[in-house]
Amino acid sequence: AFGGKSLAKGKRSHAEGTTTVAKGNYSHAEGDNSVTLGADSHAEGYATVTGPEAQAAHAEGINTQATGKASHAEGWLSKAAGDNSHAEGGWTAATGKGSHAEGGETEALGNYSHAEGIFTQAVGSASHAEGENTLAQAQYSHAEGCNDAEGNHTTASGMASHAEGRGTTTPFELVGAPW
User: What is the pTM of this model?
Assistant: First the structure.
């Protein structure tokens, strides 16, 4: 351990900076108030954390958390909680398994979902939301665009539906879909 009040407790772990803690085996914590609890994990920056079950996780930036196995959180106030998830930007959350959130205040909640832009949500499994204030609510859905003048979101709420434009909604399933 190097620096003020740093602790390297895990086997072959390394802590450097101010008040950093490397508890996971083969982990590395650096910066200020950063903590690695998972094995083979890395936390760097200010108040970054890798969770105890987060093996091979990486948190970097300011107040980021990587709590899923092999997850990666970067930026500020971002959280990668799903296994193999990735959150990047500001106030992003990737909670679904294999999900990816990027941008500002985006959420990839469904497994294998992808949210990008600002204020977007990909809720359904394998869904994709992009743009501003879009919502991909159903499984396999895709929403892209932004709000209309009245503030209505672009929303794809039917299974395998696609909504694009300003404030459009597709509340139905794709015609002829095999399910």
Answer: 0.92
